[in-house]
Structure of YceI family protein:
Amino acid sequence: MTAMTPGTWNLDATHTDVDFTVRHAGISKVRGTFNAVEGSLVIGEDRNASSVKVTIDANSIDTGQPDRDGHIKSADFFETEAHPNMVFESTEVRGDAAGEFVLAGNLTIKGVSRPVELKAEFGGQTVDAFGMTRAGFEATGEISRKEFGITWNAPLQAAAGGVLVSDAVKIQIDASFVLPAEEGAQA
């Protein structure tokens, strides 16, 4: 992140995707996205003074199937009435933060916080056609649903074995951050 302008950057939700993939019935994949996300990225003079915090509205889940989305919002999965948000707060950046790096942090889902690591890539910093200073990142990772207390499942037929929903959830994030005009003007 040393190539970025120091300051507090705001997540541009309209140019950010927070997606996931989970194996269904052991033979196919279900994909989804969260449509409401907010956050900030603080870039310090050195990497150790940098951090990111992102809040995801769990009710904004969209798998393309309203009935499935309703089930995922229920107590079987996210229990969004009691736990409407998921939060990621970074704790460490390892590697070449100007290119590929590991972003370590704590992820809280359904009131349970666990350490996670995301493989990340800095896409660069630029000034767009409207004079806004922007930076982009991609990040991927995998979590265990069970580690967050999300254990609902249904067994498959005995001959097939296994369960309906895999424990492993793959995460894919494409994020865009914008430096407020007063900080970007100093760059």
